[in-house]
Amino acid sequence: MSNDLLTIIDQDGKTQKGKDPGLPKDELQRLYRLMVATRLLDERGLAMQRQGRIGFYLQSTGQEASHLGAAYALADRDWLFPAYRQPGILLLRDISIDKIVSEWLGNSGDTSKGRQMPVHYSFREANFVSISSPIGTQLTHAAGAGMAARIRGDDTVFMTFCGDGGTSSNDFHTGLNFAGVTKAPVVFVCENNGWAISVPQCKQTASESMAIKAQAYGMPGVRVDGNDILAVYRVCKEAVDRARRGDGPTLVETVTYRMASHSSSDDAARYRDATEYEAWKKKDPIARFQLYLKQRKLWDETFEAEVVETAKAKLAEGVKLAEARANLGPESLFDDVFMNLTPQLKAQRQELAELMSKGGVGADVGHFPL
Amino acid sequence: MSNDLLTIIDQDGKTQKGKDPGLPKDELQRLYRLMVATRLLDERGLAMQRQGRIGFYLQSTGQEASHLGAAYALADRDWLFPAYRQPGILLLRDISIDKIVSEWLGNSGDTSKGRQMPVHYSFREANFVSISSPIGTQLTHAAGAGMAARIRGDDTVFMTFCGDGGTSSNDFHTGLNFAGVTKAPVVFVCENNGWAISVPQCKQTASESMAIKAQAYGMPGVRVDGNDILAVYRVCKEAVDRARRGDGPTLVETVTYRMASHSSSDDAARYRDATEYEAWKKKDPIARFQLYLKQRKLWDETFEAEVVETAKAKLAEGVKLAEARANLGPESLFDDVFMNLTPQLKAQRQELAELMSKGGVGADVGHFPL
Amino acid sequence: MTATETKTGTSKAGTKVMTLLEAITDALRHEMKQDDRVLVFGEDVGKKGGVFGATLGLQDEFGEQRCFDSPLSECGIIGTGIGMALYGMRPVAEIQFLDFIYPAFDQIVSEAAKMRYRSGGEYTCPMVIRSPYGGGIRGGHYHSQSSEAYFCHTPGLKVVIPSTPADAKGLLIASIRDEDPVMFLEPKALYRHAKGEVPLGEHVVPLGKARIARDGTDVTILCYGAMVPVCLAAAETAAQAGRSIEVIDLRTLVPLDEATVLESVKKTGRCVIVYEAPKTCGYGAELSAIVGERCIEYLEGPIVRVAGFDTPFPYTLEHLYMPDQKRVLAGIEKTFVW
Amino acid sequence: MTATETKTGTSKAGTKVMTLLEAITDALRHEMKQDDRVLVFGEDVGKKGGVFGATLGLQDEFGEQRCFDSPLSECGIIGTGIGMALYGMRPVAEIQFLDFIYPAFDQIVSEAAKMRYRSGGEYTCPMVIRSPYGGGIRGGHYHSQSSEAYFCHTPGLKVVIPSTPADAKGLLIASIRDEDPVMFLEPKALYRHAKGEVPLGEHVVPLGKARIARDGTDVTILCYGAMVPVCLAAAETAAQAGRSIEVIDLRTLVPLDEATVLESVKKTGRCVIVYEAPKTCGYGAELSAIVGERCIEYLEGPIVRVAGFDTPFPYTLEHLYMPDQKRVLAGIEKTFVW
Ligand SMILES: Cc1ncc(C[n+]2csc(CCOP(=O)(O)OP(=O)(O)O)c2C)c(N)n1
Ligand SMILES: Cc1ncc(C[n+]2csc(CCOP(=O)(O)OP(=O)(O)O)c2C)c(N)n1
Ligand SMILES: [Mg+2]
Ligand SMILES: [Mg+2]
């Protein structure tokens, strides 16, 4: 049933009989490390924004289980068409802090050459497709890539993410419909964190759940506790296997909560009740998983200290590397519009170069969003 | 259940106990007249296109019950946001044949001043909103009008139509979602005639039915035999009442069949199996309703002859009136871009007038679609 | 503030210094008060008051029926707005950033713009689509674009871009009262930076009238929105070098006040056109074409366009992408060289 | 057919007389044969072969995997096409009429056009979007529009419009092999009316090179697509009156072959620009701007634009809306009057 909610780890850290996916111990610990590192990365991002070292940041605090559990179900060769709130996947796929922070800075170490605001990553080396701001578009790309893989006979699986707000987009409808008709090997993960900036779920849709929307596209829809990494993993693993078998797409709704404000430009206190936050704080996905590990004797204070220390050291080192990187030169402004520069672009590049050679060029630019 | 199919009149013209909506006898006969007149109108339209008297036509043969039964459930003050395959509604709302045919001709009697291809009607006098070609857009307009009526406190109901192909449009998703969230008083009628030009339903969506898509928007979805006018009426009447009560929108799927080619430009034989057509021919909505009326002693050969004769006479007279109307003058080209002509448009009108005064202006234009 | 502004419109209640953003809120409040058909809606416009704060306080003042949040769908914001307009309301829809308007492009171009024409005038679509546009806030690729040319090329749409607080109020009020769909594009770079006296109460600046933001005799600069202060600053600098520059703030791109434009260029004999959108096929191309076609015999130097480059909008190199004083000054000089 | 055409590209297998439509099918078949990454899809392109027949027979020949019908969603056609391109295929998407492309506008403008730039070149989008555009078939309001300017104003898109069968084939093949997204707009009025020799087999016409469709010395006409034969006919008529008209078929709007355009106008000193889209902010505005800005000292008469009017596309008055020979001739005469 699309409206039921699967939970595996209960409030005491115990799992329901027969539901634990049975991951190896070191993998469980690895997942924990990733969750902690993701949160620390996020805190650093916000801090750097507040310090004026980067122009914008957007946190995923509270949603670590939701996106890490999902992406962990993939094989390395599988592709990701992410939204903007899944930074843990970068760590899962071994992208260095240096590269991540370089993206925030938009410097010469940024794979996307400073063309986008912070957190709009592109990492081809990790099959992590360039993130765009317009909500939802990636859902249809994932369907198309899935169609292509089927035509080619590849067994690649494609996972794509959107938020609760994203379910209202044209591309939610389109991406799921095309994937449904063509049985494309896609896992659509809707991270339902209750809010689209200041708009609550009840103003987003009247449907009983996000998962039930799958029925409109003839695919299974599953609703899972998004703060329970084992539950998310289990559901997504089934969906990934199903897709790989050729049985088509799945819509997974992870029920979670956006613990932070929407972004560094937002102040959730203006529109959101503190009691809601407090209730969700008790369901923190990291604390929950920690309890589980503790139950299983895979966690203690020493381990915790080592996990945090390692993550912090990596962070510090990565930030340092990134901040030492050079800025991008002005000529890079004209690259990558097309594979080759057109005569017009060459002329414009030349024009700017001449102007700059006389000095003093450069408009005043303010802050985001103002 | 969104996938069940409600039928009232069986193959022998009998109704299932307790399901007959109990319309007065003269109203039943009126509905029959409308169905016959609609089909004759349609035949005339195609004939005129074949004779080169109009440039394009699009038939609704086989779908008379589906759209007439639906619109009959409305009050006169209710609004229609139609697609292009519901001509019977014009007759139901007392639009003269003269005006209809003038629209085909795009002459001075055309309410839309020859701006659109045939069958893209606009009749404000009948709360029948201007039809556009882009598929699905009207669904969102209906939602918006419904939202406005609620804000105003009016009890107007809005009915809007689309095809099975239309369910794939951005606006299907958007219109239903907005109506669901705002409980707008809208009845969405999806006339599922199995085909979107040459694309069959199975390539349009993998969902089990069109009605089930309602679940994605938190509204009831009902599936009804679209060739059974009483069943369509009954389902739509409930939906209209529900909307008027303030209980929100409904999605109605009328299961029917496009008996003709898509339009005068299309040849369905190129992509459609004749056996499918033969099977549906046996379910002709007019024959079905005739049988019912006969059962109830409301139909005999004399009645039939009178119905056909009256309709034909009206048709002949209307076509004659319309064909006698003058063409539109060239100056009308510039009206209605805005309420008032801009200086630019005045200059362009002047330019054309000057050129025409020297004679010989006018490009060669071919035929649709070539 | 120039004298021209305070002269337009009528005001019985004095003036107040406002930012451009405050002037917009003031216009919305004024219209919501005097016409209960006016509805304000869009993403986050309710409790949050919009991401820039343009609708702050309106939901509290007028209730959830008059100022409400929509689902995350521009297609729906515009599409339902059209439905509301058809039913007799005066919808004022907010699109959070102009970069996000494209999911609604079909509704704007195929429906709102064509409704009156295609129905022979039976149905109309008096609605305002408000949206912040342009660069200057480090918004990168998707929070900075200037796509006014798309709308100017679409018959049936009016396109309005204010550059001062007083105009923002007066033009927005005129747009809301207009019987046709109006794209009301707000230069977000000026939201808080442009400050000036705004007439309190009733204040209407008619659509279709340009504003001479600075008188001059040597060169005409045609500009609008956030480029106006940049051009005024360049004109000031040029004045120190002895060049007398006339700066025309177009205010309304469609319909264009051609008379004011042509008169000025005929007077000065030189023309620089400044816009931040990509150069090719931008609105400035139309301006250049009009000037070239209609004033050629008056021109004493080449027409010069200073515009955004033909690249997508960058992030870290934004300061080089956006036309600045220096580029405008270089443009002015080019009009003196054949 | 002019000599210029048969000279471009290479062909080892002779030529055949084809309509423009047949030449397009031939190009698609040729590319599908030689590169199995090429996929053709859209509404009704399968069994029906498209509403105009451009894809007729391709499903039979290459199977349902290579040529398939999509659901009724332009957003999906383009959006999944982008996904296919990202994954390494060469999608060739058909949009049934250009008027119906707007539901996909976000995918085109925000995604396809910007993919390479925003990802720093990591991800690219080599895809072709084919669509019939323009008037001339009594298609009215929604089956006749020419909205090429929207795409030309969008950095990251190439825009190609053929006017002869040989070019249609050669340019389409070049577009499919291009590493960037190409809007390939087909003048539907010429689908069956333009006939000419087309090289069999391999035939590539490079993007970015205009074609001098007729040599002349007095006036340059810049045009493309369905306006080319109209302009050639006008040139012929003008020749009888002693005017020597050069007609340039642009072929590629982005990137524009500026060199050929400027050279011709500098030679003739006069320029008429003909396009069927609404005049304001159409592609012709950019052409006029370029000519005005770059050739002013060579001009012996005003630049003249002959274009569609600034109204939505009409139905019964289409013959008056579309630029015809007469209007082009009047335009030519205007270049002789200051
Ligand atoms: C098409 C579009 N419209 C508006 C925006 C502005 N915007 C950015 S994020 C956001 C809310 C998204 O909510 P949701 O999908 O629930 O994701 P979440 O932020 O909660 O992860 C909005 C409205 C956008 N990026 N794209
Ligand atoms: C946005 C858009 N895309 C394509 C078309 C071309 N077209 C016209 S009708 C049609 C099929 C519609 O099928 P359906 O919605 O099932 O309605 P039916 O014709 O069966 O009544 C198509 C593809 C269009 N009018 N609008
Ligand atoms: Mg959310
Ligand atoms: Mg259908």
Would you kindly provide a written description of the structure presented here, covering whatever features stand out?
The complex is a heterotetramer, with two copies of chain A (370 residues) and two copies of chain C (338 residues). By secondary structure, chain A is of the alpha/beta class. In chain A, strand 2, helix 6 and strand 3 form a beta-alpha-beta unit. Chain A has twelve helices and seven strands. In chain A, the strands form two sheets. Chain A has a five-stranded parallel beta sheet with strand order 1-2-3-7-6, sandwiched between helices. A two-stranded antiparallel ribbon of chain A has the order 4-5. Chain A folds into two domains: 5-323, 3-Layer(aba) Sandwich (Rossmann fold), CATH 3.40.50.970; 329-370, no CATH class. In chain A, helix 1 packs antiparallel against helix 10 and helix 5 packs parallel to helix 6. The model of chain A has no long low-confidence stretch (mean pLDDT 96). Chain C is an alpha/beta fold. Chain C has two domains: 8-199, Rossmann fold, CATH 3.40.50.970; 211-334, Rossmann fold, CATH 3.40.50. Chain C has 13 helices and 14 strands. In chain C, helix 4 (74-86) runs parallel beside helix 5. The chains are: A alpha/beta (370), C alpha/beta (338). Chains in contact: A-B, A-C, A-D, B-C, B-D, C-D. The complex binds thiamine diphosphate (2 copies) and magnesium ion (2 copies). One thiamine diphosphate (TPP) sits between chains A (85, 133-135, 162-166, 193, 195-197, 258, 262) and C (43, 72, 74, 96, 100, 103). One magnesium ion is lined by residues 163-165, 193, 195-196, 258 of chain A.
